[in-house]
Specification:
By secondary structure, the protein is mostly beta strands. It has a 14-stranded antiparallel barrel with strand order 1-2-3-4-5-6-7-10-11-12-13-14-15-16.
């Protein structure tokens, strides 16, 4: 029965993926917040709403924070094409008896942007960057149900213009039985950048607000055995963008992870290594490759988690 259930879920997710409408969110503010986070989740097709039991819970589903097995210090570095950069650092911990908190920082940007004059001559070299601070809190009202909230503080530097904003995520997690987890996330509620261009354009400047796409994500994770996890997410935004994410993780001899997935229309591969560093300090070193669209190249991501 359990195998049949997994097959049905897999077929539904793959079918949804085949008919996904992608790209509608790309032209809107806050695109770096929709890239995915952490080599483990990305290696599994950018799934995480129902299986974010690690230091990246504040991104995928803050409701998972109370179930963390201990304190997590998480770092991620992306190798991106087109002079792009993306970094993450976060700290998360459970708080007895039923809560969990985390604080995280993310940065994304583009450097080496060659400016041009009105006549087409090379001008200054520019860069742009976006940052967000994420503060998360969650509480488990029952051993099978929890609710989490992430409060986000945004800033965006574009030439000499600064944009700022706030936003929220809300997550829910439900564990009907030990082998199945169901997650729900409302992402980027009221998230936006507010710009003031009067200092840059003088009397032609103005104040305006850019809204992020607001997204609803539903995920399910099924633990087939002690070594095999299968997970999938589906999402829809208010910009009529529909996506599916699907992946699997195999734990080999309590030492290494092998992962595979589909991130919307992009295949993903990943691997991880578990080892002890010092005393009670355990570490996870994870890698993934996301095969992007034509002209974008392959994205490589490394994550390093310290658990203590």
């Amino acid at each position: 029965m359990k195998k049949i259930f997994i097959i049905i879920i897999s077929i539904l997710l793959i079918s949804f993926n085949a008919y996904s409408k992608v790209g509608s969110n790309a032209g809107y503010a806050g695109s770096f917040m929709r890239m995915g986070l952490g080599a483990r989740a990305l290696g599994m097709g950018n799934t995480g709403v129902a299986c974010s039991n690690n230091g990246f819970a504040s991104y995928y589903n803050p409701a998972a924070l109370p179930y963390l097995p201990g304190r997590h210090l998480s770092l991620t570095y992306y190798f991106l094409s087109l002079d792009r950069e993306f970094h993450y650092a976060g700290f998360a911990l459970p708080i007895k008896p039923t809560a969990g908190v985390s604080v995280a920082w993310m940065h994304a940007g583009v450097s080496n942007i060659q400016g041009r004059t009105f006549t087409g001559e090379p001008d200054e070299v520019y860069e742009t960057g976006e940052d967000v601070i994420v503060l998360s809190f969650a509480n488990s009202f029952h051993r099978k149900f929890s609710v989490g909230l992430s409060f986000k503080i945004f800033s965006h530097s574009l030439l000499d213009i600064k944009g700022k904003g706030l936003g929220f995520d809300v997550g829910l997690l439900f564990k009907p039985i030990d082998l199945i987890v169901i997650g729900l996330q409302f992402k980027d509620i009221s998230s936006s950048y507010t710009w003031n261009t009067q200092d840059f354009f003088e009397e032609k400047g103005s104040n305006y607000t850019e809204m992020f796409p607001q997204i609803i994500k539903v995920g399910i994770a099924v633990k087939q055995s002690d070594n095999l996890l299968i997970a999938g997410d589906v999402e829809v935004s208010d910009k009529e963008d529909y996506r599916a994410h699907f992946g699997a993780e195999y734990f080999y001899k309590e030492l290494a992870y092998i992962r595979v997935g589909m991130n919307s229309t992009s295949p993903t591969l990943g691997a991880g290594l578990v080892y002890g560093l010092l005393g009670n300090l355990d570490t996870h070193l994870d890698y993934c490759a996301v095969f992007g669209f034509v002209g974008e190249g392959v994205t490589h991501a490394f994550s390093w988690e310290f658990k203590f």
